[in-house]
Design goal:
Elements lengths: L5 H49 L3 H21 L6 H26 L14 E10 L5 E10 L4 H8 L6 H23 L4 H27 L8 H12 L5 H17 L7
Antiparallel strand pairs: 1-2
Helix pairs in contact: 2-5, 2-6, 3-5, 3-6
């Protein structure tokens, strides 16, 4: 049986314990450093995200939310106008004009201009009416007067919305589409009280509408079926310029080759 040195065994155990302790300390230190690094990275990412939003005004933030809601509606209607560009130009001009005009009453109401409004009833449709009344003796009395129609005719509504000289189909599409988005435009604008935010909202609303309409038009102008490249056109011209191969000639040539092979001398048997 091998003799084990007690002192050597104790020394090894002490050494292992010391090494294990150092490894644990190093591991703990490494974990702490990793945690600090993660916190630092997280902080940097948070600061970047904060900088991106803090540099934008409230007016821009509100406008961005509005555009997410109304641009898809505008795009769907715009993409239906494919007969000619005049229809789309009319749609574009009517939507931009209507969006600009929709914000005017909001500012007027906030500034108390409502008290200074003058109502003109001259444009209301008035027609003569006569009502017959009978008393208890059966004698009829007639009462005449002016009947005022407070509901404007549909043609009048279209005329008020329309722009002179613009395509009628584009105008009609614009009117129906704007009825779906007008309330959202007004509601978003009414949330802003700061003059700077309101100015930014108004300016960039119209600018972004124009840019989105340009984007829609570019999408319509691209026809995937007509896409081509210079290399493709060159190869196509070369193929078209080649003479067609005579199938009969090919078969005849193949027959001559077969006869030549059959007429050759067979190798002597081994």
């Amino acid at each position: 049986m091998a003799h084990v040195d007690r002192n050597k065994l104790i020394g090894e155990q002490v050494l292992r314990k010391h090494i294990r302790k150092k490894l644990m300390e190093r591991r703990e230190k490494t974990l702490q450093q990793e945690d600090k690094f993660r916190l630092l990275v997280r902080k940097m990412l948070t600061e970047v995200e904060t900088d991106e939003t803090s540099t934008r005004s409230t007016g821009i933030n509100v406008l961005a939310d509005l555009l997410k809601r109304i641009v898809p509606v505008l795009e769907d209607a715009y993409m239906m106008l494919t007969t000619n560009k005049e229809q789309r130009d009319s749609f574009r001009n009517h939507i931009i004009a209507a969006s600009k005009n929709a914000l005017v009453p909001v500012d007027a109401n906030k500034e108390g201009a409502k008290e200074n409004l003058v109502y003109d009833l001259s444009d209301l449709l008035a027609e003569k009416v006569q009502v017959s009344l009978e008393d208890e003796d059966g004698e009829a009395e007639s009462v005449s007067g002016d009947f005022i129609d407070i509901e404007p005719a549909e043609e009048d509504v279209l005329d008020d919305f329309g722009i002179s000289g613009e395509d009628a189909t584009g105008r009609n599409f614009a009117q129906k589409t704007f009825e779906r988005i007008e309330a959202q435009i007004v509601d978003h604008y009414e949330m802003l009280a700061d003059d700077e935010d309101k100015n930014v909202f108004r300016e960039y609303l119209l600018t972004n509408l124009m840019l989105y309409f340009d984007k829609f038009e570019d999408a319509l102008a691209v026809d995937p079926g007509e896409e081509t490249t210079a290399e493709y056109e060159k190869e196509k011209e070369e193929v078209d310029s080649e003479e067609p191969v005579d199938d009969a000639g090919e078969e005849e040539g193949e027959g001559l080759e077969d006869e030549a092979e059959e007429g050759g001398e067979e190798p002597p048997p081994a």
